[in-house]
């Protein structure tokens, strides 16, 4: 037990050091933005990982909450000139409320049906962003989202924003870790291992699933907020079905049921397209192949898969 | 309600079934079964395979509703009460095919078993208030005590799926006890255990009863059932065909026929 | 009135296409309990290979039709053999990601072969549109509906009358039991993939004269075909046909009478409605709890 939390403390410290050093050493604006995107994607993957990795419930519509976060802050700050810092709780609360309303009927489904239910929800929200042009700007998008400022500190510079996002990521990692290590987290994991047994030992599985669905929506909305104020411009295409799939992929590739897996998955999936640019025409082909091969050969994801390989090699001499 | 008294001990039955029936499509798994469980008693529920014993357990624990009939637990109906609420009120069970949480450690399995007895929620886990830490420590102490009770204290940190099968059954028993039940339902707890382990299990079951727990035991191992039970109920094809003290039931003609008719 | 009739005609046309796609989903689900998120990409492959075979390669329609469907079916079987069968932990999440990976891969392949441009195709026959009560019915629509019913009737006969078809149904009920009775269930799964993706290609072929075909046409068509299959009851052949037609008609009416913004939303609103209210579909009998 203590061993494990020590391990996590070291990992947090390492992450802080890496973030601070990166922030000092990297000066290329494009690279800083890319690193900031990794942070935003980590928040998305982390939220979905709570739902998928720990509670074992798939969602193919999480881009909807990402979009709800982004559009809420865009609409509030631009149309109503509300401070982004007030728009932030609004964005999160709205996403949570919608997750609650949608979650009640949807989480009664399981397996493919749950996948399809969440997919349908995601598509409808995406279509809403596209068609409700009076409010959302329609297909052409929403421009003029203000940068973040906190007193004298402006986050319009790449470096400050990078620090802001990663501070939030770190906080979120700690929050998720704490939830997982608690009574609540054990309840979630019991659903993943066996829903029937979980109910029989007194876990209110319906309530727990709904709670974690709402929580993951909150993380997604937070990511959406940070995205909107990073790029100042949002359009429906960012929050479509493909994005939902990409978030799922981050979770699965990085490794389900592992907060560091979310970080790894988000980093890989954010950087992969950059590397694949060199493949230009072949980008999609390679991306598809990587997805398939990881699932075929390391279905537990990279973190777990590599750990298993390591443990097997360690155990070998004993036999 | 309070006038329903057991004739022998004069106390109210802990659980009372009245003409409970359940069918799956065309299969009548349980047909009009009635009985009462006296507090702090051990009742053996026996019958050939497919007699409806597990189905009866599922009905009592609220996994699915009965088609007809009534179940009264501590004087209140259990109709439409959620499973987790029944657990909180004191009904716990084990499964015929051991159902542990395989990705979790032995200790964590028992901690989950205390879910209904602890209350830390989302905010509590994030902010780790002092009461949360106290609750967690208490839960761990309880869990270790339970592991000691079943003799698994040295394996607390192991992954539950790595335990040998017999120990998994013990762990599941400890997990059921973690919810501090008043009524404990054991579904074939000795299946797959060797003779020594079965004897130890019998001792454990008696000890659990001594702590004031009422036990309903499904078990094919007659030596175990007949020695620990105060009362035996016999099911055959969903129907209760006999009820009484072990010695009487063993002589009952209908029972002998039901058992000889099948494999026993 | 005349307008409504016109909407219904165009609804039936697109509905028939959704129906063919839905049938593909259902057949696969029936034999393997799997949902192929790459199904739409097989529709795309069918459409584009048909356009190429009958255009640049100048093949007559029928050989082009048969060749492209057979070719796509072979690709579908390769996909099963190389990807699906090698999966070690076949749980829904893993299979979903694999088929999603396949869909991205196939889309990439489509882009490499046919580029990013949209391709067009003349109608199957040059007949003028029919005039029914003032509404126009395109000859291509008749072709589409006719092909839908011919293929589905053919599949129906295949399942009910041939030994192989019956064996596939047996696999659908229980793979293990089928294996015990000596039915080669692995081969049946392979065949199911071939038939299912072949049906996808059929949908691609018949849609190619009425819309532009491009490498990215598959995703939306696949999703809508899936909605249609759910609507009719996943796993049911005729249910999928009804679901497809219903979806097409409701979509056309929604666009015509309410708002064009509703077009794509219709399918998903229906999907949610059916999932919440009657997950077994309007005529299906699938038990949802089981999955
Ligand atoms: N969930 C279920 N669905 C359908 N039939 C069931 C279900 N559970 C039990 N049955 C049927 O009910 C009958 C009684 O089964 P069960 O209660 O498991 O018997 P026992 O535990 O006494 O061996 C059997 O015929 C069994 O097939
Ligand atoms: Mg049983």
Structural description of this entry:
The complex is a heterotrimer of chains A (319), B (264) and C (291). Helices cover 76% and strands 1% of the residues of chain A. With 319 residues, chain A is mainly α. Chain A has one domain. A two-stranded antiparallel sheet of chain A has the order 1-2. In chain A, α2 crosses α11 and α8 crosses α10 (205-231). The longest helix of chain A has 27 residues, at 205-231. Chain A is globular, with a radius of gyration of 20 Å. Chain B is an alpha/beta fold and 264 residues long. Chain B is 39% helix and 22% strand. In chain B, β1 and β2 form a beta hairpin. In chain B, α3 packs across α5, α3 (106-113) packs parallel to α6 (165-178) and α5 (130-150) packs across α6. The model of chain B is unreliable at 1-8 (pLDDT under 50). Chain C is an all-alpha fold. Chain C has eleven helices and two strands. A two-stranded antiparallel sheet of chain C has the order 1-2. In chain C, β1 (130-132) and β2 (135-137) form a beta hairpin. The longest helix of chain C has 31 residues, at 2-32. Residues 285-291 of chain C have low confidence and may be disordered. The chains are: A mainly alpha (319), B alpha/beta (264), C mainly alpha (291). Chains in contact: A-B, A-C. The A-B interface holds A 1, 175, 178-179, 181-187, 189-190, 192-194, 196-204, 211, 215, 257 and B 61, 63, 82-84, 87-88, 92-93, 95, 99-104, 108, 111-116, 118-122, 124-126, 128, 132, 135-136, 139, 157, 175-176, 178-179. Bound molecules: adenosine-5'-diphosphate and magnesium ion (MG).
Described by strand count, sense and barrel closure, the largest sheet of chain A is: 2 strands, antiparallel
Record the strand order, biggest sheet of chain C: 1-2
Topology pattern of chain C, helix = H, strand = E: HHHHEEHHHHHHH
User: Largest contact between protein chains?
Assistant: A-C, 46 and 43 residues
The radius of gyration of chain C is 19 Å
Strand order of the largest sheet of chain A: 1-2
Low-confidence segments of chain A, given as residue ranges, are none
pLDDT averaged over residues of chain A? 89
What is the percentage of strand-forming residues of chain C? under 5%
């Amino acid at each position: 037990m203590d061993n494990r939390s020590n391990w996590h403390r070291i990992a947090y410290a390492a992450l802080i050091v890496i973030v601070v050093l990166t922030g000092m050493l990297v000066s290329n604006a494009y690279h800083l933005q890319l690193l900031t995107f990794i942070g935003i994607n980590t928040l998305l993957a982390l939220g979905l990982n709570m739902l998928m990795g720990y509670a074992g419930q798939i969602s193919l519509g999480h881009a909807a909450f990402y979009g709800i976060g982004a559009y809420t802050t865009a609409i509030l700050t631009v149309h109503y000139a509300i401070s982004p810092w007030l728009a932030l709780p609004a964005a999160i609360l709205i996403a949570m409320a919608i997750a609650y309303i949608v979650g009640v009927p949807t989480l009664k489904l399981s397996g493919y049906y749950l996948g399809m239910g969440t997919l349908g929800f995601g598509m409808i929200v995406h279509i809403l962003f596209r068609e409700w042009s009076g409010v959302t700007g329609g297909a052409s998008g929403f421009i003029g989202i203000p940068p973040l400022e906190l007193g004298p500190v402006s986050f319009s510079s790449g470096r400050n924003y990078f620090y802001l996002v990663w501070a939030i990521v770190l906080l979120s990692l700690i929050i998720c870790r704490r939830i997982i290590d608690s009574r609540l987290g054990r309840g979630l994991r019991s659903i993943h291992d066996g829903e029937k047994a979980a109910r029989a030992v007194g876990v209110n599985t319906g309530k727990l699933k709904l709670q974690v669905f709402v929580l993951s929506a909150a993380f997604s909305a937070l990511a959406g907020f940070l995205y909107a104020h990073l790029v100042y411009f949002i359009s429906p295409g960012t929050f479509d079905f493909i994005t939902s799939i990409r978030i799922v992929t981050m979770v699965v590739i990085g490794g389900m049921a592992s907060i560091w897996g979310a970080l790894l998955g988000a980093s890989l999936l954010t950087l992969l397209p950059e590397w694949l640019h060199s493949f230009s025409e072949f980008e999609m082909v390679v991306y598809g192949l990587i997805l398939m091969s990881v699932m075929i050969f390391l279905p537990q994801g990279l973190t777990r898969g590599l750990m298993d390989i390591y443990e097997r090699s360690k155990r070998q001499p004993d036999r | 309600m309070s006038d329903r008294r057991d004739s022998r001990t004069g106390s109210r039955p802990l659980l009372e079934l009245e003409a409970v029936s359940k069918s799956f499509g065309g299969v009548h798994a349980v047909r009009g079964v009635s009985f009462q469980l006296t507090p702090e008693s051990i009742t053996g529920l026996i019958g050939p395979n497919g007699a409806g014993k597990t189905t009866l357990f599922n009905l009592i624990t609220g996994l699915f509703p009965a088609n007809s009939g009534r179940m009264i637990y501590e004087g209140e109906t259990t109709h439409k009460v959620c499973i987790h609420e029944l657990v909180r009120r004191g009904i716990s069970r084990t499964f015929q095919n051991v159902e542990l949480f395989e990705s979790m450690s032995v200790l964590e399995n028992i901690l989950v078993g205390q879910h209904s007895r602890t209350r830390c929620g989302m905010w509590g886990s994030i902010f780790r208030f002092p009461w949360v830490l106290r609750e967690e420590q208490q839960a761990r102490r309880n869990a270790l005590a339970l592991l000691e009770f079943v003799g698994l204290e040295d394996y607390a940190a192991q992954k539950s799926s790595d335990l040998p099968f017999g120990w998994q059954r013990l762990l599941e028993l400890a997990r059921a006890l973690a919810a501090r039940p008043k009524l404990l339902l054991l579904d074939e707890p000795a299946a797959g255990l060797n003779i020594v382990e079965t004897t130890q299990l019998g001792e454990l079951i008696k000890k659990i009863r001594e702590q004031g727990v009422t036990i309903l035991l499904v078990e094919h191992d007659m030596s175990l059932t007949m020695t620990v039970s105060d009362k035996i109920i016999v099911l055959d094809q969903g129907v209760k065909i006999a009820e009484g003290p072990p010695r009487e039931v063993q002589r009952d003609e209908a029972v002998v026929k039901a058992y000889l008719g099948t494999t026993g | 009135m005349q307008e409504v009739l016109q909407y219904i005609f165009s609804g039936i046309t697109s509905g028939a296409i959704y129906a063919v796609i839905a049938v593909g989903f259902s057949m696969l689900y029936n034999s393997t309990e799997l949902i192929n998120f790459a199904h739409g990409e097989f529709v795309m492959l069918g459409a584009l290979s048909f356009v190429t075979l009958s255009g640049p390669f100048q093949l007559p329609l029928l050989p082009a039709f048969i060749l492209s469907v057979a070719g796509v079916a072979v690709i579908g079987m390769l996909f099963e053999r190389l990807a699906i069968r090698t999966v070690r932990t076949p749980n829904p999440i893993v299979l979903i990601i694999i088929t999603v990976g396949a869909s991205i891969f196939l889309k990439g392949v489509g882009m490499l072969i046919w580029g990013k441009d949209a391709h067009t195709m003349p109608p199957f026959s040059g007949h003028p549109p029919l005039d029914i009560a003032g509404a126009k019915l395109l000859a291509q629509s008749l072709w589409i509906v006719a092909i839908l019913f011919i293929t589905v009737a053919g599949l129906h006969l295949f399942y009910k009358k041939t030994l192989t078809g019956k064996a596939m149904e047996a696999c659908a009920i229980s793979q293990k039991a089928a294996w015990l009775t000596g039915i080669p269930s692995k081969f049946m799964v392979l065949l199911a993939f071939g038939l299912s993706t072949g049906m996808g290609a059929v949908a691609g072929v018949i849609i190619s004269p009425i819309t532009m075909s491009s490498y990215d046409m598959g995703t939306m068509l696949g999703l809508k075909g899936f909605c249609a299959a759910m609507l009719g009851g996943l796993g049911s052949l005729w249910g999928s046909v009804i679901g497809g037609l219903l979806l097409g008609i409701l979509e056309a009416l929604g666009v015509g009478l309410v708002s064009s913004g509703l077009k794509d939303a219709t399918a998903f609103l229906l999907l949610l409605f059916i999932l919440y209210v009657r997950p077994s579909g309007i005529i299906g009998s699938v038990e949802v709890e089981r999955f």
